[in-house]
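Q: Could you fold this chain for me?
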Amino acid sequence: MNGDTCALLCLDLPRAEALRRDAPGADDLARLAGRARALGDPTRLAVAAALARGGELCVCDLSWVVGRDERLVSHHVRALRAAGLVTSRRDGKMVLYTLVPEGSDLLSAVMGGVQQA
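A: Sure. Below is the predicted structure, expressed as structure tokens.
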């Protein structure tokens, strides 16, 4: 027996059932896990942090800020958008990206007290 499990059955059934009943569904958990996974890549994390600091930015600006190739940054911004953490809008020939509130909240949780660099 390891130290991570109870040595006896101590189930608080009413409490456990209430927690189980109110838990997010499998679809919600999958969507949320996808969002969390989106910030699991160092380049995507850097892009999200740049958007948090800079507001609305294009791929050219993001590429310069994070020090990565534009095509690579474009790929990662698409992944952030697919995860629902970033929105985009077209302004003429430019596409501008913005971190959504849920993306900002998740970024803050991931980065903790670290300055969003």
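A (continued): Residues 26-38 form the longest helix (13 residues).
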